[in-house]
Each structure stands twice: as structure tokens, then as C-alpha cells.
């Protein structure tokens, strides 16, 4: 089945290239090939079938002591899933990324996220360690370019749910969920967004998540900010069991109008850290 899907994706990509009148000669990197496959899957409206992990090449398996760690599941779009301009590495030697039952060093690109660039999570982990004296373990399970309906109707939550199962088998559950998504829903009705979000989070609860779910206000797409959607996200964060995440739209340091610059990464990490501190729902180990 997977071979058939891959052939369909390659055929689709080849057709698109031919129609555009381009002939590409040269080396296709793993990162660019992964991106092409993901875009091809979205073009064909196929659900994500597993994840090919080029990021595994950049990290090695590390000792995994999950009990004292602050474990956070990161889901949503590309700005939480390795799409930033710069690469960072956590200075805390105990910071980890969790993927399929194993732990890796927390450095970009963080294993799990479908992007191949940088993120705010290594910097966030160092800020957290300095304040709470606990190392951070990140489960990166976001999908670049994903709309809320991708998460409810097209299987984009399967990877996150599989990681929750692997974490449970390791004797642990998450301490927080970070939801940073909304840019792709520039035309989505706020009521529809809220209803779909309820489906996503109920699946997390059904999977055993009892931790607070942080909801970022994230709608900035180019120069467009969706104020009704921002209001909907704020209302979602005000519900019991949910927490206000950062105002991601306030971070305007974007190298391509969409994704974070090096300065933007630092700013976003601080905003996520501030949201956790303001929550007062994180205990020291």
C-alpha cells in the first residue's frame, strides 16, 4: 500500500513539474524530498501515513529518564514543527526529544516534527530548566501547513496519538500540551474552528491526557491577522482544563513572512515560557 502511495505521489509531482515547464537536474536532498512528499500528499488529499524521519540522522539515542522530566506534547502547524530559519541546541544536557519510545538530544531539527529546520523548543527547555530545575522532554508532532480539519478529518492526529501510546508504554504521560495552529485557517468560521478543536482535544483526553492544554493565538499569515479566530482561540483557552498560550501573532520576526527568524525563535520561546510561568500549574520535581 505504501509503495502505491509513494508512486502516486511521485507521479503527481512529476506531472506538476511537467505542467510548469520545469526540468530539474541535480541532487534532491532528504529534506527537500520529504517536503515534496508532504506537499504531494496534501495535493492528493491523502492522510499522512507514518513519518519518514530525516531528522534522526542529526540526533543520536540518549539515556531516557522520563520520571523527573517535564514532558510536553507539541502539536499544530509549522511554527512549532521545525520551520524556523535558525538551528539551536539545548544547553541542558538532560533535555530530550521523545520519539517512538526512545529519547534523543533536544536539538534542531527536533525529531518528530515534520519540518527540517529550527524551532523554539531547545531555548524553551533551557529557560524552563533555569526556572523550575527540571529538564524538558519534547514530543514534537506538528504538521506544517495543516488546517484544523486536517487534524479532525484527515488523520493528522494519528502520529501524536501514537506517541502518547509509546509514552504510556514507557510508564509516563504528558505534563502539558502546546497547541500552536491557526494560520492555515484564515478562511475558517470561528464557530467551526471551535467545534473542530473540541474534537481534537477530546481525542487527546480519550488517549489519557489529563494535563493542561495550552492554546496559542496563532493566525498571522503573511500580513493578515484573523481577529475573529484569535478571539475564538482566546475563548477556547478560557475553558476548564485549558490555558492561554502565547500570542504567537505578536512575533513578527519572520524571514519569509510566515516562519520565524533567529530572533523570532528566541522571542517565541520566551513567550511560551512566560505562558507556562503565568499558568502556575507546573510543579518542581
Automatic annotation (TrEMBL):
Record-annotated membrane-spanning stretches: none
InterPro entries, alphabetized: SASA (IPR005181), SGNH_hydro_sf (IPR036514)
A Pfam family that the UniProt record links to this protein: SASA
Name of protein: Sialate O-acetylesterase domain-containing protein
Domain Sialate O-acetylesterase: 124-276
UniProt keyword Coiled coil present: no
A single MF term (Gene Ontology): hydrolase activity, acting on ester bonds
Signal peptide range in chain numbering: 1-20
Keyword annotations of the record: Hydrolase, Signal
Hydrolase is among the record's keywords: yes
Top-rank taxon, per record: Bacteria
Amino acid at each position: 500500500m505504501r509503495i502505491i502511495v509513494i508512486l502516486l505521489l511521485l507521479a503527481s509531482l512529476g506531472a506538476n513539474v511537467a505542467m510548469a515547464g520545469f526540468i530539474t537536474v541535480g541532487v534532491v536532498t532528504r529534506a527537500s524530498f520529504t517536503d515534496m512528499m508532504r506537499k504531494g500528499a496534501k495535493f492528493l488529499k491523502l492522510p499522512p501515513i507514518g513519518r519518514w524521519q530525516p531528522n534522526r540522522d542529526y540526533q543520536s539515542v540518549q539515556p531516557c529518564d522520563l520520571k523527573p522530566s517535564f514532558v510536553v506534547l507539541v502539536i499544530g502547524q509549522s511554527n512549532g514543527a521545525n520551520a524556523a530559519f535558525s538551528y539551536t541546541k539545548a544547553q541542558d544536557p538532560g533535555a530530550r526529544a521523545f520519539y517512538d519510545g526512545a529519547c534523543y538530544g533536544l536539538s534542531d531539527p527536533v525529531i518528530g516534527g515534520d519540518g527540517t529546520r529550527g524551532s523554539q523548543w531547545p531555548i524553551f527547555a533551557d529557560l524552563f530548566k533555569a526556572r523550575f530545575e527540571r529538564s524538558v522532554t519534547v514530543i514534537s508532532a506538528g504538521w506544517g501547513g495543516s488546517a484544523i480539519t486536517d487534524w479532525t478529518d484527515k488523520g493528522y492526529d494519528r502520529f501524536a496519538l501514537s506517541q502518547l501510546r509509546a509514552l504510556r508504554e514507557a510508564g509516563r504521560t504528558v505534563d502539558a500540551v502546546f497547541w500552536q495552529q491557526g494560520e492555515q485557517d484564515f478562511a475558517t468560521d470561528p464557530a467551526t474552528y471551535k467545534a473542530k478543536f473540541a474534537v481534537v482535544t477530546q481525542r487527546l483526553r480519550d488517549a489519557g491526557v489529563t494535563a493542561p492544554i495550552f492554546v496559542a493565538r496563532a493566525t498571522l499569515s503573511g500580513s493578515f491577522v484573523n481577529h475573529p479566530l484569535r478571539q475564538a482561540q482566546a475563548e477556547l483557552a478560557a475553558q476548564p482544563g485549558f490555558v492561554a498560550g502565547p500570542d504567537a501573532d505578536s512575533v513578527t520576526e519572520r524571514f519569509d513572512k510566515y516562519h520565524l527568524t533567529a530572533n523570532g525563535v528566541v522571542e517565541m520561546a520566551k513567550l511560551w515560557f512566560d505562558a507556562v510561568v503565568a499558568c502556575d500549574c507546573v510543579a518542581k520535581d
